[in-house]
């Protein structure tokens, strides 16, 4: 169906140099349709077709006096693109499962592995005023030295 609408569009454009931008956009759309036909229609190819169709609509909007036959052909192309989008859409069950997984993965984890904890059975509570540190000492050195001293480890 899209090829027939493209044929109508090209016939409506003719060889008028005023419609060169529209003709170029129509050629890009024709290449996207040809690629989808050659490799099979999937969601990525439908996105390519819709992108080219949006460029075509923008080129038509920029044209000062486009004939009505161009608008009719573009309306057919938009209907065909919507039908392609509907056929390649993912099932609602799958989309909701993916969204649930994304939500689950974004949620902060409350369980930490004991291998990631740096704890010691006899760790005393430290007050920040008890051990002032120089401003130039990196935090990771301070943390590691504080853990070593609180666990009774010396170098």
How is this structure best summarized?
The chain is built from six helices and no strands.
Provide keyphrases for this structure.
155 residues; mainly alpha; 6 helices; elongated
Describe this structure in words.
There is one protein chain. The protein has helices at residues 2-13, 20-39, 43-62, 68-88, 92-106, 139-150. It has 155 residues and is an all-alpha fold. Helix 2 runs antiparallel to helix 3 and helix 3 (43-62) runs antiparallel to helix 4 (68-88). It starts with a helix and ends in a 5-residue tail after the last helix. The model has no long low-confidence stretch (mean pLDDT 80).
**pLDDT below 50 for ≥5 consecutive residues: which ranges?**
none
Work out the helicity level.
Answer: 55-70%
Q: Mean pLDDT, rounded to whole units? A: 80
Biggest sheet features? none
Q: Structural class given helices, strands, pairing? A: mainly alpha
Spatial shape = elongated
Strand fraction: under 5%
Which radius of gyration do the C-alpha atoms yield?
A: 32 Å
Order of helices and strands: HHHHHH
Number of strands: 0
How many individual helices? 6
Kindly, what is the distance between the CA atoms of the first and last residues, rounded to a whole number of angstroms?
78 Å
